[in-house]
From TrEMBL:
The keyword Transferase does not apply. GO terms for cellular component: cytoplasm; prefoldin complex. Residues 90-117 form a coiled coil. SUPFAM superfamilies: Prefoldin. InterPro entries: PFD_beta-like, PFDN4, Prefoldin. It comes from the Eukaryota. Keywords: Chaperone, Coiled coil. Belongs to the prefoldin subunit beta family. The keyword Kinase does not apply. GO terms for molecular function: unfolded protein binding. This is Prefoldin beta-like protein. One of its GO terms (biological process) is protein folding.
Length: 130
């Protein structure tokens, strides 16, 4: 604990095993939250790409058929079919984002509770802010 205190100050707080476990739990929650946030950002980028493609299709609607790449091949489809495909692909991604957002919020509640408990015991001797 002396490594956490400024030079010249001594800590009178004893770090128990339970305290160390709470600090470790906070760290795991924080790491998992960062992972989920990165995953959400990736999903949102994919959703944005689908929405951009859908907009491009709407702008090209004057054409009779639009070429759609499927795997390594191309197929002609009309604009309405392509818009439906884009919406169908985006829907599950949006659901995943909502689930992950809820999980991040739950993690934040747990982190807030742990942070309050640890700061009440250790005060400025502990820094849990990123």
């Amino acid at each position: 604990m002396s490594g956490l205190m400024p030079k010249g100050q001594k800590s009178t707080v004893t770090v128990l095993l339970a305290d160390q476990q709470k600090i470790s739990q906070f760290s795991r929650l924080h790491s998992h939250g960062e992972y989920l946030t990165a995953k959400i950002e990736g999903l949102q980028a994919r959703i944005q790409s689908l929405e951009d493609a859908e907009e491009e299709v709407m702008m090209a609607e004057g054409d009779d058929a639009i070429l759609l790449r499927i795997g390594t091949g191309m197929a002609e489809r009309d604009a309405m079919d392509i818009e439906e495909i884009m919406q169908e692909k985006a829907a599950p991604l949006k659901e995943q984002v909502a689930v992950l957002d809820a999980e991040v919020q739950a993690l934040e509640k747990q982190k807030t509770a742990l942070k309050a408990e640890l700061y009440s015991k250790f005060g400025n001797a502990l820094n849990l802010d990123p």
